[in-house]
């Protein structure tokens, strides 16, 4: 495939390659996307949008309902990495990929072996006591009924960025620096409509190449030197020669 060959060539030439990924990276692992026509954010429960139910205000006002929704709809404790995750891990091991910047909270990049991962939206496998700071994992929350509590009696909060919360400045700052230094950015499985994450593309220097691997058009397609609409997992697996 000529386009894949071009991408392979650019990877070998690049000194600073960044991968910016979204929900489309994990759909092959059985985790639904969010913003497509049939994504989770298009759905509602009892007249309330899923997006609203994942807000900090809903968590605070309806904590028990929030966790009930989380357990039934949002958590995938048995999800495993797919070829896309393993391909990115291999590229990192071979020195062809500097960092994975992800909007996903599933932790599958690390499970596949990636070491340098910036989780801009947090990780759904971490739950922190708002009272003492003790950390619990997803399995603990799944096994609880009602509101999960710490051994000290404090309420647990997912270590994820809920709607209405700001991204952690340290993580966003690191991502901006990697984007600024990149000479090749591969964007995969994201609509590039949610800011400030989508704005990372704007930090690329004029000489940097942009490759977009996404099923649907994005606002930054005109900036890209290469656009691939094929199956993301297959493209990345072919690129990494898996």
From TrEMBL:
HAMAP family xrefs: Sirtuin_ClassU
Residues that hold nicotinamide according to the record: 34, 105-106
Lineage top rank: taxon: Bacteria
Alphabetical list of SUPFAM superfamilies matching this protein: DHS-like NAD/FAD-binding domain
PROSITE patterns named in the record: SIRTUIN
Alphabetized UniProt keyword annotations: Cytoplasm, Metal-binding, NAD, Transferase, Zinc
Record function comment: NAD-dependent protein deacetylase which modulates the activities of several enzymes which are inactive in their acetylated form.
Textual note on the cofactor: Binds 1 zinc ion per subunit.
Name this protein carries in UniProt: NAD-dependent protein deacetylase
Residue ranges occupied by any Deacetylase sirtuin-type domain in the UniProt entry: 1-242
Main localization of the protein described in the UniProt heading: cytoplasm
Catalytic reactions of this protein: N(6)-acetyl-L-lysyl-[protein] + NAD(+) + H2O = 2''-O-acetyl-ADP-D-ribose + nicotinamide + L-lysyl-[protein]
Binding site for Zn(2+): 129, 132, 150, 152
């Amino acid at each position: 495939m000529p386009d894949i060959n071009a991408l392979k060539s650019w990877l070998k030439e690049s000194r600073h390659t960044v991968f910016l990924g979204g929900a489309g990276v994990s759909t092959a692992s059985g985790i639904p996307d969010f913003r497509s026509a049939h994504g989770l954010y298009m759905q509602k429960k009892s007249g309330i949008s899923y997006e609203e139910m994942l807000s900090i205000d809903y968590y605070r006002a309806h904590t028990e309902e929030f966790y009930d929704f989380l357990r039934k709809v949002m958590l995938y404790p048995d999800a495993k990495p797919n070829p896309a995750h393993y391909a990115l891990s291999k590229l990192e091991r071979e020195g062809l990929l500097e960092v994975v910047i992800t909007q996903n909270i599933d932790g599958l990049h690390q499970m596949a072996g990636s070491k340098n991962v910036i989780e801009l939206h947090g990780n759904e496998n971490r739950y922190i006591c708002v009272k003492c700071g003790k950390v619990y994992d997803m399995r603990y929350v799944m096994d609880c009924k009602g509101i999960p509590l710490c051994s000290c009696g404090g309420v647990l909060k997912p270590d994820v960025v809920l709607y209405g919360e700001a991204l952690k400045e340290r993580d966003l700052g690191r991502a901006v620096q990697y984007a600024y230094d990149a000479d090749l950015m591969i964007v995969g499985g994201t609509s590039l409509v949610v800011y400030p994450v989508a704005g990372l593309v704007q930090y690329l220097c004029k000489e940097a190449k942009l490759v977009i691997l996404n099923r649907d058009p994005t606002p930054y397609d005109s900036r890209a030197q290469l656009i691939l609409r094929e199956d993301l997992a297959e493209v990345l697996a072919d690129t990494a020669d898996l």
